[in-house]
Amino acid sequence: MNPKNSGRRRFLKSSAALAGLAVGASASGRSLAAQPAPEKVDELHLYGERSHFVESVRTGSINNPERRLKDEPVAFGLRSPLQDQVGMITPASLHFIVSHGFEPPDIDPREHRLLIHGLVDRPLIFTVDELKRLPSVSRFHFIECHGNSSTAGPGGPARIAPTATAEDTHGFTSCSLWTGVPLSLLLKQAGVQKGASWIMAEGADASKHSKSFPLAKAMDDALVAYGQNGEPVRPEQGFPLRLVVPGWQGINNVKWLRRIDLVDEPYMFMMETSRYPSLKLDGKSRWFEFELGPKSVITRPSGGQLLPVRGYYEISGLAWSGGGAIRRVEVSTDGGRSWRDAQLQDPVARKAHTRFSIAWNWEGEEANLQSRSTDEQGTVQPTMAEVAKIWGTDVEYFRKTSLIVGDFNAIQPWRVNRDGSVQNALF
Amino acid sequence: MRFSRHLLTAFVLFASGVVLAQTPTYKNVGRAPTKQEIQAWDIAAGPDGKGLPPGQGTAKEGAPIFAAKCAVCHGADAEGAKIGPRLTGGKAEIETFTTLRPIRTLGAYWPYATTVWDYINRAMPRNQAGTLTANEVYALTAFVLSKSNIIKEDDVLDAKTLPKVEMPNRNGFVPPKFADIPDEKKRGCKQGICP
User: Fold this and answer.
1) Domain A295-424 CATH assignment equals 3.10.310.10
2) Contacts of A129 (CB under 8 A, 6+ apart)
3) In tens digits, what is the pLDDT along chain B, a chain of 195 residues?
4) What ipTM was estimated for this complex?
């Protein structure tokens, strides 16, 4: 979308809201005559806009399949421009979007309900306001699509091209401060019955997206979130309610959450049996893979950027793991031959993006920048050769297959050329 | 043993009765839904047939409905078209699973026939979800399955027969036992990747 148009629309909306306010005030008998009319410049401040000099945007599309009729390019979703971001929070306006081709629904939060039923003592229906009465928590968590960084599939060509940016290679992950009610609290309120071992979560979108996962995870750290980075969850992220399932494949984090059913076996929904299982070379599919492994990417300098002069640069990037907190990030400038420990910047939270940085003097030589993360379990991010070995194949497979390579967490190399240009060096 | 630790925690909580608290902790937050409310929302159908409503349909009955509501995206014989994916497939496509160009169609790949019913019912036709009757969903499920020769044209699908339909790739998934799913170590996962 053109950012200028969106700004204009927002401005018009603000004006309308102000007009409504004025009418309301008059109706209640208060005179506005003594007050100066709000100046347009003030109206612009009612909902903050970023500087018009800042142009970083997501790339891609919702991937509505009707686009194919018009021969428009079909993308996998919208990627977040990681290379433009600082710190460890993703602005909600730039959070990645994957919604399997369905537009976000327009939900009135006053009409929205969350139903909890199935193997519980007391089925319950909550309004959003009722959920806000319950004890709340705020936690930093990343959400990552299991197809993030896939070398093949719909996003493959852009991801492996030498021109790829960090957005192209890793843009399907984002990190927010999520605020809401622990799902365990709601399930205890309903009274979990003996025999319940799985839950299914369902959204209110046009496809009624649904996903099954083990009850133990629901009781551990899942969150029914209504807040994201200090404001209501954005429509594209599930307004008014989103399930956050920390550290597990993005598909479990059901947006527009409206129903939770406690059951004794998975429902075998379309996404979990047909799209998201990982078909391996033996012809068998691994299903219900949940936890995302340790991963990291240098965002600065990264693909498409340019080092204008020789001299000092801070190498900076993001690391995350579904296994818990990031304990260590090492950085190499010589293609993995030698490694130095990077500094982890606060906050370092469990199952959240962690910002790392390290000092570097560039003397104009060709360099190969890599980062390698280790999580609190001691699990170390693998090289692509190690990923291939675990898959039982060679690295060329990841370039050639037509499948989305799920949970691909290999080390990402960036080549710095002598002219200061930076490019993707995965292959 | 990442996940198994979570499981252990859960077992301990269960054993100590914390999870099974008999009275709600928070007073007057949330209300009990009526049976009708649950019924209206509870649309999911499970592999054992749980959740499938009364009704029935055959491929013959499904053919005109498919032509009117589905063929525009999926092609007249469910062979796939510009918008919608191909739905047909079987043994020949399963043989592609070990190649660089696997054909993962509904007929070839999906392990449960109940999933076909559930997805048509919850999400199809695109942008008109929820408009099909239970009979129409049974008939469309039958039509799609018959196009892959998984059932015959006259086979009647209903809540009893649908879960018994054997899909060609039913045994193509590991681990087969759900109990083994949460334990990544048991599954041989290393460095966050499962082989």
Assistant:
1) no
2) none
3) 444 555 555 554 444 444 444 578 999 999 999 999 999 999 999 999 999 999 999 999 999 999 999 999 999 999 999 899 999 999 999 999 999 999 999 999 999 999 999 999 999 999 899 999 999 999 999 999 999 999 999 999 999 999 999 999 999 999 988 888 878 888 889 999 998
4) 0.88
CATH topology for A113-286? Sulfite Oxidase; Chain A, domain 2 (3.90.420)
Reference B122, options A82, A269, A61; nearest CA is A269
Judged by a CB distance cut-off of 8 A, whether residue B43 touches chain A is yes
Do A220 and B114 make contact, defined as CB atoms within 8 angstroms? no
Q: Do A284 and B174 touch (CB under 8 A)?
A: yes
Report how far residue A60's alpha carbon sits from residue A157's, in angstroms, rounded to the nearest whole number: 13
**Which of A79-83, A152-156, A256-260, B148-152 has the least mean pLDDT?**
A152-156
Chain B CB contacts of A259 below 8 Å: 41-42
What single-letter amino acid sits at A332? S
Calculate how close chain A gets to B156, using CA atoms only, in Å: 22
CA distance A190 to A125: 10
Tell me the two tokens of residue B147. Answer: 């196009």
Return the amino acid letter for B127: N
What distance in Å separates residue A296's CA from the closest CA in chain B?
13
Return the amino acid letter for A91: P
Q: Return the CATH number at B78.
A: 1.10.760.10
For residue B52, give the chain A residue with the closest CA.
Answer: A267
Q: How far is B179 from chain A (nearest CA, A)?
A: 9
Amino acid symbol at A24: G
CB contact under 8 A, B194 and A198: no
The reply to whether residue B129 touches residue A206, judged by beta carbons under 8 angstroms, is: yes
Give the domain ranges of chain A.
1-51, 113-286, 295-424
Instruction: Please state, in angstroms and as integers, the Cα–Cα distance from residue A347 to each residue in A22, A350, A426, B190, following that order.
Output: 43, 10, 30, 27
**What is the phi/psi pair of residue A306, to 5°?**
-135, 130
Tell me the pLDDT tens digit for each residue of A145-157. Answer: 999 999 998 888 9
In chain B, the number of structural domains is: 1
pTM of the model: 0.90
Give the domain range for residue B186.
52-195
- Centroid of chain to Cα B13: 31
Residue A294 pLDDT exceeds 80: yes
Least confident of A35-39, A67-71, A398-402, B57-61: A35-39
